[in-house]
TrEMBL record:
<feature type="compositionally biased region" description="Polar residues">
    <location>
        <begin position="392"/>
        <end position="403"/>
    </location>
</feature>
<feature type="compositionally biased region" description="Low complexity">
    <location>
        <begin position="838"/>
        <end position="849"/>
    </location>
</feature>
<feature type="compositionally biased region" description="Polar residues">
    <location>
        <begin position="850"/>
        <end position="861"/>
    </location>
</feature>
<keyword id="KW-0472">Membrane</keyword>
<dbReference type="GO" id="GO:1904047">
    <property type="term" value="F:S-adenosyl-L-methionine binding"/>
</dbReference>
<dbReference type="InterPro" id="IPR029039">
    <property type="entry name" value="Flavoprotein-like_sf"/>
</dbReference>
<dbReference type="InterPro" id="IPR058240">
    <property type="entry name" value="rSAM_sf"/>
</dbReference>
<dbReference type="Pfam" id="PF04055">
    <property type="entry name" value="Radical_SAM"/>
</dbReference>
<feature type="domain" description="Radical SAM core">
    <location>
        <begin position="479"/>
        <end position="728"/>
    </location>
</feature>
<feature type="compositionally biased region" description="Low complexity">
    <location>
        <begin position="419"/>
        <end position="430"/>
    </location>
</feature>
<dbReference type="GO" id="GO:0010181">
    <property type="term" value="F:FMN binding"/>
</dbReference>
<dbReference type="GO" id="GO:0102521">
    <property type="term" value="F:tRNA-4-demethylwyosine synthase activity"/>
</dbReference>
<dbReference type="InterPro" id="IPR008254">
    <property type="entry name" value="Flavodoxin/NO_synth"/>
</dbReference>
<dbReference type="InterPro" id="IPR034556">
    <property type="entry name" value="tRNA_wybutosine-synthase"/>
</dbReference>
<feature type="domain" description="Flavodoxin-like">
    <location>
        <begin position="134"/>
        <end position="306"/>
    </location>
</feature>
<dbReference type="InterPro" id="IPR013785">
    <property type="entry name" value="Aldolase_TIM"/>
</dbReference>
<protein>
    <recommendedName>
        <fullName>S-adenosyl-L-methionine-dependent tRNA 4-demethylwyosine synthase</fullName>
        <ecNumber>4.1.3.44</ecNumber>
    </recommendedName>
</protein>
């Protein structure tokens, strides 16, 4: 029985065991699942209640960072929180727990993205009483904007002081943009000064001209743009300003509409300021045409800005939706650009949260892409310019394969951004001085022959004077150069300064980079020789021209690369000087110390000049008005290069003294520069007064032209200072006739005699040998006695002729000492073919030139001032006219009376305020 039960159970087991196992397994799994679910539910239900979103940022730290009793221990205020995270969203005023941090805790910066289009624009809640500091900024090249800004500044000062809320305004300040450091004002407002009574906030007024050429305005615009795009800086770093407004000056005659470029740079500045301030345009952009309505427009603008200022103090901000709030619809262009910016932001924001650098990295990537694109544009521009240039000349291949590097200044490579201006969009290189340009007309009127598109040649009064046996320029006295054998030319009419004494009458092309079509050197060489000979030939009918000198003059022996402009700016300058030397024409090259790279790459010339127009940064800025912002560094680098090249180049410092600008108290400064550059020679001359409207606007009058006595006094002091420093220099020679004195290194004093003359034949022979050589290797014969210090420097073989209003007595009283006075008597004897005391062959002279170049003859007025420009003419302004006129007139009148031929009308200074020249 028992056996049958057992076998039944066994049979049942076999039948049910599988379902049983499955059931047990299912039950087990079900129990496990339920128990896990329970456990998780329990966990969820036991988590703390969610905190305020404002506190989320504090919750990132692990739980153990929170001290259990911290609630009682410490609280943090909103201010403290903001101090750590300036851009944080407003948080509740309720006190919140602070977390104790371990040293290892990463610093977490919290905040929110600033809206790209702030709508409040300063119309936010009225501020606590504050004071307004108005700042007036201006830029100016030819002083007209400066004058307007100064006028506006004065009126504004008076108006604010007289206003009913005068106590809320600090006295306005005036700033020239080319003097200030942009970082001090245009990355963030100046450091806020706490007044005794209230906070001080700033308001900017910006007055600007527009130039479709490279000027100091370009770096300013670049700065604004870069600041806006700089990923490290908030896109609106100037938003703490109370407001801003811009006024532009333009010329509707040349740029009739905005599309043509009228006031384009002021418009750009206005646009960038809107972005940088978060649209705090307090009053709309004003624009005035300098030739018609600029005064009225400026006055309207001033009144509008004043109203906006009154609103600001009244309402604590710009106000919303009212005129001048800066809020109303911006231009499409601005919106488009903001969209582009938003793209950048979007890409930046697409980065993973928590990676604090990712946003910046993404911005950087976009920025790099933009820069790369811009760089490609620039290179393409350059390429197309060069291609175009090459197409335009048959010698393209020869040029490009030339071993001379194309000296392009990459230090300022910003593209022209004058929206709408022709130059901004021109895809190919333009001519520097097109035949149809006002510059061409002005230069030809002044007597220049324009060769190709960027070179010029001119003969000067010294050449004419030498042809007539009436004396050569100081270069004959100092270096043995006969003026009638000299050609004065420049392969670049453009330069990077706007010197107050420049002869180019403000119409000159300027630029920091070469961005024009490049003419081949052969074409320039042939063209300038042809132009020079043509002008010499015009002299053949002039009474008094000596036949033998006329014949000699038909063989150029010397070339002064100065005139106006900057010769080393020309990319093929080395090829050009080689051509001169191949024809045994010596080269004197004058540069303005602004292009160190080109200077360093310059091959050997017979004499290398650097213009030293001031002894310190401020004076140099005032006198040369350089376009480069780093002009002083460039200047100093050029002096260093001169010193480095002293063993192979015969170097000269040319000092141009301008009374009231660069003489007083500057001897020590000049001695510092001499000590730095160690030139072979230092030529000191007085400024030549050109009487242009540009120079008079810059404050230059005849009163700034020093007397010869003053120059002598200065030279004696400088000589003493150099000696005191143990520098071996001495006063070697003088040319009182052109108010020029020469200091020389004692290397050029041999056996107790100065040897400042040059052995030109030796120079060419040494060049032909191809071995290295230096200036001491081609020293010429002794300086003639009559040219040495104390003897006046007028060649006794020539005839000194006084013009009307000047006589020998005047000259004597004037301090034109020694031999020059003895030679005053009109000597009618024919000049000897071989001039006594002079070196046998070479002579030449530079002509009247720019400040970086030479001095014309002492003026005719009896006062022995250094010089006036006798080629200057048309632009002379106001009272200065007559001075310039009287100087020019006597010489030219004299020639006219003598019946000089008039063969080339365009060559004559035929203007209203200068007598018609009979020739050059
Ligand atoms: C070379 C040159 C380029 C100029 N380019 C422009 C231009 O693109 N748009 C414009 O409206 N005015 C242009 N002007 C006119 C000047 O902006 C105007 O004369 C201004 O008043 C000069 O101011 P400033 O004397 O303070 O330098 C140009 C003037 C010069 C001499
Ligand atoms: S003086 Fe000479 S360096 Fe100065 S602006 Fe004129 S051309 Fe240029």
């Amino acid at each position: 029985m028992a056996g049958s039960i057992f076998s039944d159970l066994l049979a049942a087991w076999h039948i049910f065991r599988i379902p049983l196992f499955i059931g047990v397994a299912i039950t087990f799994v079900a129990i496990r699942a339920v128990s896990r679910l329970r456990a998780s539910r329990e966990k969820l239900s036991s988590s703390p209640a969610p905190s305020s979103p404002a506190l989320d940022s504090k919750k990132e730290a692990p739980q153990e960072w929170i001290a259990p009793n911290s609630l009682d221990e410490k609280t943090v205020s909103r201010e403290n929180n903001n101090a750590e995270s300036s851009a944080a969203e407003p948080i509740s005023e309720k006190e919140v727990p602070i977390k104790k941090k371990t040293d290892a805790a990463p610093k977490r910066v919290t905040g929110t993205k600033r809206s790209k289009s702030p709508k409040s624009n300063g119309a936010d809640t009225p501020r606590a009483p504050f004071k307004v500091q108005p700042l007036v900024f201006y830029a100016s090249l030819t002083a007209s904007t400066q004058k307007s800004a100064e006028g506006l500044f004065e009126v504004m000062k008076t108006a604010l002081a007289a206003s009913s809320r005068a106590e809320r305004f600090l006295e306005p300040q005036l700033h020239d943009l080319s003097y200030i450091d942009y970082d001090d004002f245009f990355i963030a407002p100046p450091k806020i000064v706490e007044d005794e009574e209230a906070e001080v906030l700033y308001f900017y007024m910006i007055l600007l001209p527009t130039y479709n050429i490279d000027t100091t305005l370009d770096p300013f615009l670049d700065h604004l743009q870069e600041t806006h795009h700089d990923f490290r800086i908030d896109t609106a770093p100037l938003s703490p300003l109370l407001g801003y407004s811009v006024f532009g000056f333009g010329d509707k005659e040349g740029w009739p509409t905005e599309e043509d470029g009228f006031c384009s740079q002021a418009r750009q500045v206005d646009k960038w300021m809107a972005k940088l301030t978060g649209r705090k345009r307090a009053f709309p952009l004003g624009m005035g045409d300098v030739k018609s309505d600029s005064k009225e427009r400026l006055e309207e603008w001033r009144l509008g800005v004043q109203e906006a200022l009154a609103d600001i103090v009244e309402k604590g901000g710009l106000g919303e939706g009212v005129s001048g709030s800066g809020d109303p619809v911006e231009s499409d262009e601005e919106e488009e650009e903001e969209e582009a910016d938003a793209e950048v932001e979007a890409e930046a924001d697409g980065s993973s949260p928590g990676d604090s650098d990712a946003g910046a990295q993404a911005k950087l990537r976009v920025k790099r892409r933009r820069n790369k694109a811009a760089a490609v544009d620039d290179l393409e521009d350059l390429g197309s310019k060069l291609r175009k240039s090459d197409e335009n000349n048959n010698n393209a291949e020869q040029d490009s394969s030339s071993d001379a590097p194309l000296a392009v200044d990459f230090t300022t490579y910003g593209k022209k951004k004058s929206s709408g201006s022709p130059s901004a969009t021109a895809p190919t290189a333009k001519e520097m001085v097109p035949k149809t340009s006002p510059t061409y007309a002005s230069l030809t009127k002044q007597g220049y022959t324009i060769v190709g598109s960027h070179s010029g040649v001119k003969i000067c009064r010294w050449t004419k004077s030498a042809l007539r046996g009436r004396g050569s320029c100081y270069k004959f006295s100092f270096y043995g150069i006969k003026s009638h054998l000299c050609m004065e030319t420049t392969p670049s009419l453009s330069c990077s300064n706007k010197c107050i004494f420049c002869w180019r009458h403000g119409t000159n092309p300027v630029g920091t980079t070469w961005r024009w079509k490049v003419d081949p050197p052969e074409m320039i060489f042939d063209g300038v020789k042809e132009g020079h000979y043509k002008k010499i030939k015009m002299m053949k009918g002039v009474p008094g021209v000596r036949a033998e000198r006329f014949q000699e003059a038909m063989r150029i022996r010397h070339c002064a690369l100065s005139l106006v402009g900057e010769p080393i700016f020309y990319p093929h300058i080395n090829e050009f000087t080689r051509m001169l030397h191949n024809e045994r024409i010596s080269s004197f090259l004058v540069c303005n110390a602004q292009h160190p790279d080109q200077l360093a790459a310059l091959e050997q010339v017979t004499q290398l000049y650097v213009s030293i127009d001031a002894s310190n940064r401020d004076a140099l800025r005032r006198i040369d008005r350089p376009l480069h912002r780093d002009f002083w560094e460039r200047f100093q680098r050029c002096l260093d290069i001169l010193r480095e090249h002293r063993s192979r180049q015969r170097t000269v410092f040319r000092l141009t003294l301008v009374k009231g600008f660069n003489i007083d108290e500057e001897v020590t400064g000049y001695a510092d520069l001499v000590e730095r550059g160690i030139p072979c020679f230092v030529e000191i001359k007085g400024v030549t007064y050109c009487g242009t409207s540009d120079s008079s606007r810059a404050g230059l009058t005849m009163q700034n032209v020093p007397f010869y006595e003053e120059i002598k006094e200065f030279v004696i002091k400088l000589d003493d200072e150099l000696r005191r420093r143990g520098l071996s220099y001495g006063i070697a020679a003088e040319h009182a006739h052109s108010c020029c004195i020469l200091l020389a290194s004692t290397n050029f004093r041999i056996n107790g005699r100065w040897h400042t003359l040059i052995d030109y034949d030796r120079f060419f022979d040494l060049l032909a040998e191809g071995k290295p050589f230096g200036p001491e290797d081609y020293i010429g014969p002794p300086t003639p006695e009559w040219a040495t210090w104390g003897h006046g420097g007028f060649d006794p073989a020539d005839t000194r002729v006084f013009r009307k209003g000047k006589n020998r007595k005047d000259a004597s009283e004037a301090g034109e000492t020694g031999e020059s006075v003895v030679n005053d008597a009109v000597d009618s004897s024919p000049a000897l073919p071989g001039i006594s005391s002079a070196p046998p062959t070479h002579t030449a002279a530079e002509t009247e030139t720019c400040g970086s170049a030479d001095t014309p003859e002492t003026p005719s007025h009896s006062a022995p001032r250094a010089g006036t420009c006798c080629s200057s003419n048309s632009n002379s302004a106001n009272g200065n006219k007559s001075e310039s006129k009287s100087c020019c007139r006597s010489e030219e009148e004299q020639l006219e009376e003598e019946g000089a031929a008039t063969e080339e009308p365009e060559f004559h200074a035929n203007s209203t305020n200068v007598v018609v020249n009979t020739f050059a």
